[in-house]
Amino acid sequence: MDRLHNYVEQLFIKYKGSKQVQELKQEVLSNLEAKVADLTANGMDEGEAVRVAKDGIITIDDLIDSNRKVYINQWRLELVQIGLLYFLIAWIIALPFRIIGSGILLNELLSFITFILGISYLVLRTRKQALYLRQTATLDLQAAFYRRKLGWVIWSIFIGVMVLYTTAIHFGSNIWFSRPATFSGPYQFAVVAIAYVQPFFSILVPLLLHAMPKLIMKYEVGEEDDYEA
User: Fold this and answer.
1) Do 47 and 110 have their domain in common?
2) Which of 61, 70, 114, 224 would bridge with 87, disulfide CB 3.0–4.6 Å?
């Protein structure tokens, strides 16, 4: 039935077409078709039977092995807390960089993000109702691990490119003409050093991605919690 097939496709739209997903998709479709056949055999109109069958499966999140049911607001709170700590440390470290223009921009950006995270943390922290803290959502643990790995790979490539770019800008002519690098004074040395160090502040992004799967496992709803709920 085209209606059931299209419905199943919508249920699986956010999942990649791995072998496991394809097998599960076919199983769900077969179960829905069998349900419709059983209902129509008992005298129900086909359109009504399709509606009843579809209402029986609203989401397939719990059927995907890599999915984890977590206390989503507790997960958000700790993730924001970790982000706030990381950006606050980065902001403090970047304070001496304000001796140059790009350092000022970096420090102001870190200050702004720290402020936003601080406000978000205070808002989340004030909501301590049991019902709010026990709200759940399904997160894909496998996808979180993949994003963590991809984040580190992209960051490593970015750092490599930026180091080469900074070297070319400041020492390209010295390398080309085989001349030794010299600095006119401490300020010029500081400018060059800051140019090399600044890109490393982007490590905050993979660090946050690194924390996500750990927090998913930390705040996963256990069987005892499911029973109590």
Assistant:
1) no
2) 114
| Sequence-distant contacts of 64-67: CB under 8 A, at least 24 apart | 64/15, 64/20, 64/21, 64/24, 64/140, 65/20, 66/140, 66/141, 66/142, 66/143, 67/138, 67/139, 67/140, 67/141
DSSP character for 135? -
pLDDT for 184-229, tens place per residue? Answer: 888 888 889 999 999 999 999 999 999 999 999 899 887 445 434 4
Domain end, chosen from 11, 40, 63, is at: 63
Q: Quick one: tokens of 105?
A: 């921009």
Q: How many domains does the chain have?
A: 2
**Domain boundary residue, one of 20, 39, 63:** 63
Q: What is the pLDDT of residue 225?
A: 55
Q: Model's pTM, two decimal places?
A: 0.71
In terms of domains, do 72 and 52 share one?
no
pLDDT digits (tens, 9 = 90+) for 36-75: 888 888 888 888 888 888 888 777 776 667 788 899 999 9
My answer on whether 132 and 202 are in the same domain is: yes
Q: Which is more confident, 25 or 21?
A: 25
Query: Looking at this protein, which amino acid is placed at residue 99?
Result: I
Range of the domain at 123: 67-228
In terms of domains, do 27 and 122 share one? Answer: no
Phi, psi of 134 (to 5 degrees): -100, 10
Between CA 147 and CA 153 the distance in angstroms is 10
Task: Give pLDDT, residue 229.
Answer: 45
